[in-house]
Structures are given as C-alpha cells and as structure tokens.
Amino acid sequence: MSGRSEIGSASKPRLAPHRRLHFDKARAGWTIQAPERVFLLDEPGHAIVSRCTGENTLADIVDQLCAAYPDAPRDAIFTDVAALVRDFAQKGVMSL
C-alpha cells in the first residue's frame, strides 16, 4: 500500500521489501537498513518497529506497548505508534 493509505487499528504494518531491522554494533543501536539509507532507532522506535511484523495489527502493537509501559496513556501510545508507522510508510520503509 502507498504511504498515503489510512492508518487504523486494523492496519498490519511491516517493513517493506528489502528493508531490515538490524542491530548496528558500531552505533550500538538498532537501525532499519534500506537501499542507500539507514534509519537510526531510539528505544521507543525499536519497541514499535520490532512489533511491526505484518501479523500484529496496530491495535495489537498498542496493547503490547501498553503492557510494556503501563504508566504511559494508551491514547499517547496510539498517537506515537500511528505517527511513526505513517512516517515510515510515506518514506517507503514500511507497508501496511
């Protein structure tokens, strides 16, 4: 799907073909490797992207993150997850 697709609770995000999640020892952090590009992930970014398998819905990912971060408000988690997925979808890094 294109980056302009609507992102909702039933969306099943995953990394687009030829993109991969990788622990970069030199940077001591997680990255997404894409042709001619590398995206550095912070801890919350990795927590989101690592759950974007194409099997989990956005609602599943939010549920998992709510369990992992019980002090964070659910609506804030949903907003952050949707924003990251939307941004990566627009950049061609993730598909829905």
How would you explain this protein's 3D organization?
The structure is a single chain. This protein has 3 helices and 5 strands, in the order E-E-E-E-H-H-H-E. It is α+β, with helices and mostly antiparallel strands and 96 residues long. Helix 2 crosses helix 3.
Summarize the SSE layout with pairings.
Layout: E1 14-15, E2 20-24, E3 29-34, E4 37-40, H1 43-49, H2 58-68, H3 74-90, E5 94-95
Helix pairs in contact: 2-3
Which tags fit this structure?
single chain; about 100 residues; alpha+beta; three-stranded antiparallel beta sheet; two-stranded antiparallel ribbon; 3 helices; about 35% helix; about 20% strand; globular
Which regions contain 5 or more consecutive residues with pLDDT less than 50?
none
| Structural class by helix and strand composition | alpha+beta
Dominant shape = globular
Number of helices: 3
Going across the major beta sheet, what is the strand order?
Answer: 2-3-4
What share of residues is helical? 25-40%
Q: Summed up, what is this model?
A:
This protein is α+β, with helices and mostly antiparallel strands and 96 residues long.
